[in-house]
Design brief:
The protein has one domain. Strand 6 and strand 7 form a beta hairpin. Helix content is about 55%, strand content about 10%. It has nine helices and seven strands. By secondary structure, it is of the alpha/beta class.
Length: about 220
């Protein structure tokens, strides 16, 4: 087990132990506050935008204040209506009746880390903008009043973000949603871009057999 994995395990262990004395809300807030502190910005649990930014930092596992500053700047540079909408989605915890549904992201950390690492073609601004689009479309397509949680699978988007060098901006990339057997909304990028690296093409082909042409990523991947 790596040190990073141990730290993640320790956060989960401490959260479970705290549930014996504190409420779910208090434990969740403590995790957000810890993530905000590690990323170098202040956490205010009474503000949706602060909660949303802390969650992004938590998802990306940001522990470098410089990376935290870049994420905060990108978040604050969003159009006001975009920032408010994304904050509403990410700040919802699914616990309080007026904060439903919440969003759960499988491979959310992997997606954000790959997107942030690809600074030239993706970076924090494009990553959070497409995350907003994903939340909007998942909400419109799958939400109903009975659901307290919307589960989203970002594995393919993460692979795509790692090697993205398309002719369109990453945040404008079209995608499809497909409901999986385990109840997740799978995000499927749908764009043609050239792929010249053989290892990248092979990895994408394994994730989507039959959906790639030789030397390219075709529509419908």
């Amino acid at each position: 087990m790596t040190e990073d994995r141990w730290k993640e395990f320790e956060v989960g262990k401490n959260a479970i132990l705290r549930l014996e004395e504190d409420s779910e809300q208090a434990v969740y807030d403590s995790i957000l506050a810890r993530s905000a502190q590690a990323a170098g910005f202040t956490f205010d649990g009474n503000k949706r935008e602060s909660r949303a930014l802390a969650r992004l930092a938590c998802m990306a596992n940001i522990t470098d204040p410089e990376k935290g500053r870049q994420l905060e700047e990108s978040f604050n540079e969003m159009e006001e209506d975009q920032r408010v909408t994304l904050s509403t989605y990410l700040a919802a915890d699914g616990i309080n009746p007026n904060q439903k549904p919440a969003f759960a992201f499988q491979d959310g950390r992997l997606f954000l880390q790959k997107a942030l690492a690809n600074e030239q073609s993706v970076g924090p601004s494009a990553a959070i903008l497409i995350l907003l689009k994903v939340c909007q479309e998942v909400y419109e397509k799958y939400n109903d009043k009975s659901k307290s949680l919307l589960m989203v699978k970002l594995s393919r988007l993460a692979t795509f973000a790692a090697d993205f060098q398309g002719s369109v901006t990453f945040q404008d990339m079209p995608f499809a949603l497909e409901m999986t057997s385990d109840g997740y909304a799978l995000v499927i990028p749908k764009v043609w871009i050239p792929v010249s690296k053989e290892d990248v093409l092979k990895r994408l082909t394994l994730q989507c057999p039959g959906g790639l042409g030789q030397g390219s990523m075709s529509k419908g991947w």
